[in-house]
Amino acid sequence: MLTELLCEAEAEQRGLDVGAAPPVRLDQRAAVELGSITAAAFEGCGAVRAVYEAVTADVTVPEEQAAAYAAATARPPAESEWRLSTTDGDFDAAPGTLPERLASALAGAAPGQTVTVDGLTITLLGTREPRNPPGPGPRLLDAARRLAFVRWLDHARAHRLRLVPGLEHPGDPAQPDNHHRH
C-alpha cells in the first residue's frame, strides 16, 4: 500500500496520466528483480507503472556492459534440426543428439525417406534451420530499468515515508520482534 501511495503522490507531482499505463502481468524474472511487494504494486496500480515509465525513460545499457554480457553468455551456434517421424509421433532433433549410426543414416536420407537402424525405424520429414535466440539487448535494458526503478523507489521510501510506530512490517530486521509471524 505504501508503494502505491508513494507512486500516486509522485505521479500527481509529475503530472503523469496514470490511466495511460496499461495493465501488465510480470514474468517471473521481472517479479524477482522488482521484489514481491513492488511487483504486486506494479501489476495492480497504474500509478506505479506510470512512475516506473517516467523514472526509467532515460535508462540505457552501456555498450561495453552489453558486450561483456554477450561474451559471458555466448553459446555455440545452434545445429540445424531434423523433423522426424516414428510410430510414436513426430519430433525435432539435432543430429548430435541422436545415436551416431542413426544420425549417419539420416544424413544420407532425402526428405520423406524412411531408415531403419538398430531396430529403430524413422522417417525424415525435413530439416529446419536453427533459430538463434535474439541478442541480449532488450532483456538487458529491461533489467537495467527495473534496477533503476527499485533504487529510485528505495530512495524515495527512505526519504519520504515515515512509518507509524507499531505498524512496521513484522519481518523488518530493524524491528525488535522480527520473527515474521502472521
**What value does the average pLDDT take?**
87
| Percent in strands | 5-15%
Low-confidence runs? none
Count of helical stretches? 7
What structural category arises from helix and sheet content?
A: alpha+beta
Could you give the count of β-strands?
4
Write the H/E string, N to C: HHHHHEEHEEH
Question: How far is the N terminus from the C terminus?
Answer: 18 Å
In spatial order, strands of the major sheet run 2-1-4-3
What does the model show?
- The chain is α+β, with helices and mostly antiparallel strands.
- It is 45% helix and 13% strand.
- It has seven helices and four strands, in the order αααααββαββα.
- The chain has helices spanning 2-14, 28-34, 36-44, 46-56, 63-72, 100-107, 137-160, and strands at residues 81-86, 89-93, 114-117, 120-128.
- A hairpin with a 2-residue loop joins β3 and β4.
- α3 (36-44) crosses α4 (46-56).
- It is elongated.
- The two termini are 18 Å apart.
- The relative contact order is 0.14.
Secondary structure elements and pairings:
Elements: H1 2-14, H2 28-34, H3 36-44, H4 46-56, H5 63-72, E1 81-86, E2 89-93, H6 100-107, E3 114-117, E4 120-128, H7 137-160
Antiparallel strand pairs: 1-2, 1-4, 3-4
Helix pairs in contact: 1-4, 2-3, 3-4
Question: What's the short version?
Answer:
With 182 residues, the chain is of the alpha+beta class. Helices cover 45% and strands 13% of the residues. The chain contains seven helices and four strands.
